[in-house]
Write a structure and sequence with these properties.
Blueprint lengths: L20 E6 L2 E7 L15 E7 L3 H9 L3 E9 L2 H12 L3 E8 L6 E6 L8 E3 L19 E5 L6 H13 L3 E5 L6 H6 L9 E2 L3 H8 L4 H9 L6 E4 L5 E4 L4 E4 L12 H14 L4 H16 L11 H10 L4
Parallel strand pairs: 1-4, 1-8, 2-6, 4-5, 8-9, 9-10
Antiparallel strand pairs: 2-3, 6-7, 11-12, 12-13
Helix pairs in contact: 1-7, 5-6, 7-8, 8-9
């Protein structure tokens, strides 16, 4: 296996993404974190916790938020309910500079949401309702004129044929594409979205998904199997290992940064945003993976996808000054 790494000192000057427009399409979720959950109280008893906070999340919503922080022009396309959660989710994204005009309102569905109790040791089980994400359809995606990149979060919700139709139309218009699957890795899930894969420039799974999709025990071998399905590039996150990028021509391994992890919720979405922006702004696969890992490190040091306060210049400086594992 060939690998490569670029010393931080030789990295290029930060890309300016101001002209990059990204459509974040698919799953949008409102997350509610409760920190300091030691146990579920018995009966109707209460329990004090350290904090409770709301954040925009989801394989499309979380990526949209981070992409906007990094300086991209971002349009969100998805579905929310006509409820307080939907209005809150819209407001959280708008506060981050995301254009939410493409978020359709489905009056008969509630906004998708998760309740995430964070235990003192960092474990974070979750309760989740699919809500309006289950009713999202292609007609909810408006005109893509002016879009440079389309990021589809959760293709399983629309199915492979519809996802393939959307991505094929985007590519025909000169728009690059990426996919982030929300569901756990399973060969049946891969078959469900198969029609979308030949129209996908970048697939952004985690390591467990790659192994589950392909039935392999080696991450690079599994990524190569996904390339055989028509994907142009596989950029997989691998926890403390960092990220592995596999194309027909190269295998690149980028280590994770040495940080004190608080919460990993949203780290995958943050990596996706960094990698997508890096590639759209002309960075190499390795540079883009390093950017993705550096953005994920910002999120991991706080609570929720919107943790921390950063922009592209801050993240690039972090990447050059922070040691890796």
């Amino acid at each position: 296996m060939s690998t490569s790494s670029t010393p931080a000192s030789s990295r290029p000057a930060p890309a300016t993404p101001g002209t990059v427009t990204v459509a974040a399409v698919g799953v949008h979720v409102l997350d509610a974190h409760a920190v300091g959950i030691e146990s579920v109280p018995e009966g109707s008893e209460g329990q004090l916790v350290e904090s409770i906070r709301l954040s925009a999340a989801g394989t499309a919503g979380g990526a949209a938020l981070v992409l906007s922080r990094l300086g991209a022009h971002v349009r969100s396309y998805g579905a929310v309910g006509d409820d307080a959660a939907g209005r809150t989710l819209r407001a959280l994204l708008e506060d981050e500079g995301v254009d939410v005009a493409g978020l359709a309102t489905h009056p008969t569905e509630q906004t998708s949401a998760s309740v995430i109790p964070v235990r003192p040791n960092g474990d974070r089980p979750a309760w989740h309702v699919i809500g309006a994400n289950g009713g999202f359809t292609l007609p909810d995606v408006a005109d893509l004129a002016g879009v440079d990149h389309l990021h589809l979060g959760g293709p399983e919700f629309v199915g492979g044929p519809a996802a393939g139709e959307l991505l094929a139309a985007a590519r025909a218009a000169g728009i690059t594409t990426s996919i982030d699957v929300l569901a756990p890795g399973d060969p049946g899930m891969l078959e469900w979205i198969q029609d979308a894969l030949p129209h996908c420039d970048v697939l952004l799974p985690n390591d467990e998904q790659v192994l589950g999709f392909t039935g392999t025990t080696d991450l690079v071998e599994g990524a190569r199997a996904l390339l055989q399905k028509g994907v142009g590039c596989v950029a997989a996150t691998a926890g403390e290992r960092g990220a592995v990028v596999v194309t027909a021509d190269e295998v690149v391994e980028v280590p994770a940064f040495a940080i004190d992890v608080v919460d990993t919720t949203g780290c995958g979405d943050a990596f996706s945003a960094g990698f997508v922006l890096g590639r759209a702004a002309g960075r190499s696969a390795e540079e883009s993976a390093r950017l993705g890992c550096a953005v994920a490190a910002q999120v991991a040091q706080g609570l929720g996808t919107d943790a921390g306060s950063y922009d592209l210049a801050f993240v690039d400086a972090f990447a050059t000054s922070t040691p890796t594992r």
